[in-house]
Every structure is written in structure tokens, then in C-alpha cells.
Specification:
The chain is of the alpha+beta class and 84 residues long. 42% of the residues lie in helices and 15% in strands. The protein is built from 3 helices and 2 strands. Strands 1-2 form a two-stranded parallel sheet. It is globular and about 30 Å long. 12% of the residues are buried.
Length: 84
């Protein structure tokens, strides 16, 4: 994710959201990194998680509340919750 800033891809897959934030990093730093990775997707964003975490919970909340076709508005909503 660190090297993706400034790039765009048709499909972006981010596995392991249940492991975020990493114990060695703060939630805000990890949220910013996740935001950069998520916004690299031009057409499709694939997120996976095998366990619960603050990131997974918030993504589920925002996804359930989102209207169809909300697109990058969902990402902005996530940052409002996770970011400073």
C-alpha cells in the first residue's frame, strides 16, 4: 500500500482488514494508509476480512447505510470516522 500513492488501478484488492490497525501503528496512521489504497481503485474495490476490527466494523456500518452507486463517498465516510 505504501508505494501505491499517486497510482490508479482498475481493480484494487485489500485483504486482511481484520488485522488493521497493526499493533505497532496508530489507528489514524493506518486509516490514512487504507484511504490511499482504497482510493487507487478506479472501477472495483475488493476488501476481505477474516476477523473483526474497528476498520471492519466501520466499513460494515458505512456499507449498510450507503445508497447504491455511492462510490467514493463511502471512502470519505470511512475517513471521517477513522481519521483525525
Amino acid at each position: 500500500m505504501h508505494s501505491s500513492k499517486g497510482l490508479e488501478f482498475p481493480v484494487v484488492a485489500i485483504p486482511g482488514l481484520g488485522y488493521m490497525p497493526h499493533r505497532d501503528y496508530g489507528i489514524h496512521e493506518e486509516a490514512k494508509l487504507l484511504y490511499v489504497a482504497m482510493t487507487r481503485a478506479m472501477d472495483q474495490l475488493i476488501l476481505t476480512a477474516s476477523k473483526a476490527s474497528p476498520f471492519v466494523s466501520r466499513i460494515q456500518q458505512v456499507h449498510q447505510a450507503a445508497k447504491p452507486g455511492a462510490g467514493k463517498g463511502i471512502v470519505s465516510s470511512l475517513m471521517g470516522f477513522l481519521g483525525p
